[in-house]
Every structure is written in C-alpha cells, then in structure tokens.
C-alpha cells in the first residue's frame, strides 16, 4: 500500500471510528442513567478527541513523538483558526457567559502550563501526564457543577435524543467498532505520515501539524458547520474551546502517562507552540475586547488568514 493511500485510509477510518465512538459511548452512558448534561459535557467532548488520542498514542509507541505533539498543537490551531473561522463566515457566533467566565480562562491556563512543561522538561514526563489528567477531572467537575447551578442544558440534545433510543447491543457494537476503526485508522495514518516524510524528506512535525492535524479536526469542523447551519450559535465557540482543553489535558495527559513524550524537533516549541499560544491570545481579544460577545465574519476571515499564514510558514 502506498504511503498516500495509507494516510487517506487512516483519515477515513478515524472519521467513521470517531462518529461511532461518540454515538456508542453516549448511548451507553444514557442507558446507565447518567444525565444528558453530564454526557454532553464529558463523554461527547472526550469522544470527539478520540482521533487525536489514538493517533498521538500510536505515534509515541512507534517512537515518533513529534507526530504526537504536532497533532495536538496543529489540531488546536486548526480548531480556533480554520474551524471557528469557517463557522464565523456562515453567521456571527455568540459567546456564552460560561465561555467568558470559565472555558476560555481554563484554555489559556492549560495552554500556558503546557508551554511551561515543554520548556522546563523538553517534553512531558509521566508524572506530569498524570497531573494533566487530574486537572482535566477537576475541570470536568467544575464545568458540570457550574452548568447545573446555571441550569444549562447540553448543547448536543439532538444527538443525545437519537442515541438514547439505540438498543443495548447496538450501543456496544458502535463502541467496539468505533475503537477498532480508530486503532487501525491511527496505525495507517501514522505509518503513512512517516513514510511520506521519509520519501519527500519532510519532517514528521510538518506533516503532523498540517495534514494529520487537519484530519483529526474533521469531526469538530463537521459539527461546527452543522451547528452553524442550524443556527445553534452557542455551540461552536464553547465546544471548540472545550475540544482544545481536552486535546492538551486528556490526549497528552493519557499518552504521557503511558509513555514519556520528548521533543525531537525543537521547532515544536519555538515555532508551533508559539503560534498556538499567540492564536489563543488573539481569540481572547475577540472574546473580551473587540467582539461585544460575538465573533463576526470579519474576524472569521482574519482567523482563516492566520491559519493560511501558519501553513505557509510551516511548510516553507
């Protein structure tokens, strides 16, 4: 199998595996009488980060740490600039009170902590991986507690309603097949990425922050576009910020707890991370300074231009 076909097949398997995992895990959680709010805030958010998790874990086990870092950092950049930019072009996005008071501050804090860990440890040691997981659990608990206090409903009501009617065998089947597809999708994607990098003498980091990161961000892109079309304007910003938090704390936390992740290409910290944290600050300006609690089409265009610039400088 050619490297290109392997990479494309990996992306396809990750997409369908992620979809099945979301539906199966949500349905199973609802049958266990876990509230829709808890499911929406935790299970769905974690399941949509499954492609990044499987790819990063497989990459680290294969000794390709730069793919793991590049995948997460590139996905976070793509979520804010590409996905949010495209969604904002469809219509103005409102920014919820929870995003302002909780989600964005946690995103900024976790991103800064992530950078500090990379700088001081030249990677993520196992004990820091466990710390990330602990911080994630604290964040999830705080999110659920605040949402219950504010009497908020889950943003994924339609998905939850559909999933709740699945029979038990179908829920388990979705879950098993989803994990199966994610595992093999990650294998094909990582193998194809490594092969292409060697063939064209391109660093694994570059392919990871571009092609791989875009591929693992497809679920967020599809979800946000559907939300925009349905005019569920509170969904996009909060979910994308939540996805970025899960990418750092859950994906890198779980992977590092299995095996320490070390930086091979210094550009991960000096270039990619710098872009990620600057873009995070830009999003903060949109939320708190310029937007009057919304992200306009002009700001969507600016985000897309930032993403194109990042791709250009990454490759050239």
List the helices and strands and how they pair.
Blueprint: H1 3-31, H2 36-48, H3 50-61, H4 65-90, E1 93-94, H5 97-121, E2 123-124, H6 126-149, H7 157-164, H8 168-200, H9 204-216, H10 218-229, H11 235-258, E3 261-262, H12 267-290, E4 294-295, H13 297-315
Antiparallel strand pairs: 1-4, 2-3
Helix pairs in contact: 1-2, 1-7, 1-8, 2-6, 3-4, 3-8, 3-11, 4-9, 4-10, 4-11, 4-12, 4-13, 5-6, 5-11, 5-12, 6-11, 8-9, 10-11, 12-13
Give a quick precis of the structure.
With 316 residues, this protein is mostly helical. Helices cover 83% and strands 3% of the residues.
- How much helicity do the residues have? over 70%
- What name does CATH use for the topology? A middle domain of Talin 1
Please count the beta strands (DSSP E, at least 2 residues each): 4
What is the count of structural domains?
A: 1
Judging from the principal axes of the Cα atoms, what is the shape?
A: globular
Q: Spatial order of the strands in the main sheet?
A: 1-4
**Secondary structural class:** mainly alpha
How many helices? 13
In the CATH scheme, the class would be: Mainly Alpha
The end-to-end span amounts to 28 Å
CATH architectural arrangement: Up-down Bundle
Strand coverage percent: under 5%
Largest sheet, in brief, is: 2 strands, antiparallel
Tell me the name of the CATH homologous superfamily: NCX, central ion-binding region
Ranges with pLDDT <50 over ≥5 residues? Answer: none
Q: Give the mean pLDDT.
A: 82
Return the string of H and E elements. HHHHEHEHHHHHHEHEH
What is the rounded Rg? 18 Å
């Amino acid at each position: 199998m050619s490297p290109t076909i392997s990479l494309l097949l990996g992306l396809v398997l990750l997409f369908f595996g992620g979809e099945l995992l979301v539906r199966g895990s949500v349905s199973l959680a609802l049958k266990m009488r876990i509230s829709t709010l808890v499911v929406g805030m935790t299970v769905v958010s974690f399941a949509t980060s499954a492609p990044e998790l499987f790819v990063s874990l497989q990459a680290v086990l294969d000794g390709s740490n730069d793919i793991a870092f590049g995948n997460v950092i590139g996905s976070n950049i793509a979520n804010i600039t590409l996905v949010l930019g495209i969604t904002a072009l469809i219509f103005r996005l409102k920014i919820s009170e929870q995003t302002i008071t909780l989600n964005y501050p946690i995103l900024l804090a976790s991103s800064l902590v992530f950078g500090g860990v990379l700088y001081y440890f030249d990677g993520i040691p196992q004990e820091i991986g466990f710390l990330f997981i602990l911080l994630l659990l604290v964040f999830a608990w705080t999110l659920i507690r605040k949402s219950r206090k504010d009497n908020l409903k889950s943003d994924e009501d339609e998905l939850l309603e559909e999933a709740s009617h699945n029979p038990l065998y179908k829920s388990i089947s979705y879950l098993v097949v989803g994990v199966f597809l994610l595992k093999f999708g990650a294998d094909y994607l990582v193998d194809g990425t490594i092969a292409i990098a060697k063939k064209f003498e391109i660093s694994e980091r570059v392919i990871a922050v571009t092609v791989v990161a875009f591929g693992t961000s497809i679920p967020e892109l599809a979800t946000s576009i559907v939300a925009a079309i349905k005019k569920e304007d509170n969904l996009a910003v909060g979910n994308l910020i939540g996805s970025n938090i899960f990418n750092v704390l859950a994906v890198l936390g779980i992977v590092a707890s299995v095996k320490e992740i070390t930086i091979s290409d210094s550009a991960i910290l000096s270039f990619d991370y710098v872009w990620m944290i600057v873009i995070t600050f830009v999003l903060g300006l949109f939320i708190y300074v310029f937007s009057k609690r919304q992200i306009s089409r002009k700001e969507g265009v600016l985000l897309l231009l930032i993403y194109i610039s990042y791709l250009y400088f990454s490759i050239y």
